[in-house]
Design brief:
Layout: H1 2-8, H2 21-33, H3 37-43, H4 45-55, H5 59-80, H6 88-119
Helix pairs in contact: 1-2, 5-6
């Protein structure tokens, strides 16, 4: 389960989430699992797909997770589309919007995780009044 969390969890404590999914998958498989990416994805497919519904607590977290996947798909599309006379206008428009899309995504992530970090603890532990600054 921890390997799936390292791969899929968009939360701020997952330091690997700044990397593209295929890079995270390769790193996890090489450094922790000692198995190929294909074997891992095949054997754990149902758990990987179910992860967000089990772990993510709110609709906002699920939407942020889905948005991250769409941005990754967008980047793959841009990388795999040749820059030629049939596609240059579309790619130019995508490139112009690239920075603003990522800026909004990062701001949404900061707001989402700041809100969550203020209201929740790991494993839903009840914080003491001194930890909360009440005494």
């Amino acid at each position: 389960m921890w390997a799936i969390a390292m791969l899929e969890d968009a939360n701020s404590y997952n330091r690997l989430f700044v990397f593209k999914k295929h890079e995270r998958l390769l790193w996890i498989c090489e450094n922790y699992l000692n198995m190929s990416e294909d074997v891992f994805q095949t054997e754990y497919k149902e758990y990987i797909e179910a992860y967000k519904h089990v772990v993510l607590d709110s609709k906002e977290e699920i939407e942020y997770y889905d948005w991250a996947i769409k941005l990754e798909e967008r980047n793959i599309f841009m990388r795999n589309t040749p820059y030629d006379e049939t596609s240059f206008e579309m790619l130019d428009k995508m490139i112009i919007k690239h920075d603003s899309i990522w800026k909004i995504f990062r701001e949404a992530g900061k707001a989402l995780f700041a809100k969550g970090e203020l209201s929740k603890t790991r494993a839903d532990v009840i914080e003491s009044e001194s930890s909360l600054g009440l005494i």
